[in-house]
């Protein structure tokens, strides 16, 4: 059997596409029987093209490999144990881990949570909700979130933006529904809150501390604008922001007490809705030339600029402005975070 697997691995590294595809299919069919040999070629020392093809095979084998991977974790060989851990989580989520491995991950997470600052939130692209930090329980209830798990910002952002953040499941009536995973940041204090409130030339947020909720699939498919209205109805205020360089899109939206107040959307017509907010008027008044005056004639068209003035601008957040830790949550009471695939960076 090992000779056959080695032959398939050689075919997997060949230049002929049909030969590679046939070898990949055969290795997938072998499933757990091929795991040991595949892991030997999945490490950083393996040639990059072959390593990527082996990783593709491992993803297709999926949960069929779990029993052998668990055995490797418990019994060795030692050189395969670390790779087996990663493949286990990629195949079946943290739910696939054995008890000892799960406890080890929990201990490591507790250590990481003690020193996770500064928090770094992606500023190049993304979508997020902002809400007053002291309304966490209200937001959890309003959005129907479950299984809150303490998590580092590094792992939380990865879970909500890079890894699997939506799963299809069947309910008791055999109807398919989508379950989402989201990340809620620690409490973050707006740097503008420290400015002089008597200075008429400075806009300060209505709330001084905020939490941001990240979840690309959730905010896209459940509509971030609608969610902001629902949250603000019970929390007083909520914002939805979106930056999408690929589609040259910028959105920002302010909702208060369940009603739209002000918003901008690149591809809407008209682009602005509602009356300009004080910070927008300041940008227009402080324009240094005609070009800048024209740029801000109707208001501020940039999501990050709006976030910086209204709540929290994503990016590196200073430790002194951050308190506590963030949370992972799902949108279904019976599907925990353990079921989402992917070995998150802590």
**Main β-sheet description:** 12 strands, antiparallel
Strand percentage, roughly? 15-25%
Number of distinct helices: 14
What distance separates the N and C termini?
38 Å
The backbone outline, from C-alpha atoms, is elongated
Note down, in words, how this protein is organized:
This protein is an alpha+beta fold. It is built from 14 helices and 14 strands. The protein has helices at residues 2-12, 17-30, 35-40, 48-61, 66-75, 78-92, 99-113, 136-143, 153-161, 216-221, 224-235, 278-285, 290-295, 303-310, and strands spanning 119-120, 126-132, 146-151, 166-170, 176-184, 187-189, 209-214, 237-244, 249-256, 259-265, 272-274, 316-317, 322-323, 326-330. Strands 2, 3, 4, 5, 6, 7, 8, 9, 10, 11, 13 and 14 form a 12-stranded antiparallel sheet that branches. The chain has a two-stranded antiparallel ribbon with strand order 1-12. β10 and β11 form a beta hairpin. α5 packs antiparallel against α6 (78-92). It is elongated.
């Amino acid at each position: 059997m090992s000779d056959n697997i080695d032959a398939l691995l050689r075919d997997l590294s060949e230049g002929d596409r049909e030969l590679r595809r046939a070898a990949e299919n055969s290795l997938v069919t072998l499933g757990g029987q091929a795991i040991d040999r595949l892991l030997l070629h999945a490490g950083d020392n393996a040639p990059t093209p072959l390593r990527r093809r082996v990783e593709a095979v491992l993803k297709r084998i999926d949960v069929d490999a779990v029993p052998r991977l668990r055995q490797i974790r418990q019994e060795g060989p030692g050189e395969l144990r670390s790779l087996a851990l990663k493949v286990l989580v990629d195949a079946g989520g943290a739910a696939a881990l054995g008890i000892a491995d799960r406890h080890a991950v929990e201990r490591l997470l507790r250590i990481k949570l003690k020193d996770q600052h500064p928090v770094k939130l992606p500023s190049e692209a993304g979508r997020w909700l902002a809400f007053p930090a002291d309304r966490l329980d209200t937001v959890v209830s309003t959005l129907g979130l479950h299984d809150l798990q303490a998590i580092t910002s590094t792992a939380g952002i990865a879970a909500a933006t890079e890894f699997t953040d939506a799963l299809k499941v069947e309910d008791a009536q055999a109807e398919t529904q989508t379950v989402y995973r989201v990340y809620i940041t620690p409490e973050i204090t707006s740097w503008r809150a420290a400015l002089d409130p008597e200075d008429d030339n400075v806009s300060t947020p209505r709330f001084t501390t905020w939490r941001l909720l990240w979840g690309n699939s959730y905010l896209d498919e459940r509509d971030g604008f609608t969610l902001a209205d629902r949250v603000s109805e019970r929390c007083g205020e909520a914002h939805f922001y979106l930056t999408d360089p690929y589609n040259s899109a910028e959105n920002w939206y302010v909702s208060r007490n369940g009603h739209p107040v002000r918003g901008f959307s690149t591809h809407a017509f008209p682009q602005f809705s509602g009356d300009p907010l004080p910070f927008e008027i300041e940008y227009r008044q402080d324009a240094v030339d005609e070009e800048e005056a024209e740029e801000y004639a109707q208001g501020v068209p940039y999501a990050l600029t709006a976030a910086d003035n209204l709540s929290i601008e994503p990016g590196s957040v200073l430790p002194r402005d951050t308190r506590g830790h963030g949370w992972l949550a799902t949108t279904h009471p019976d599907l925990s975070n353990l079921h989402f695939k992917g070995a998150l960076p802590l």
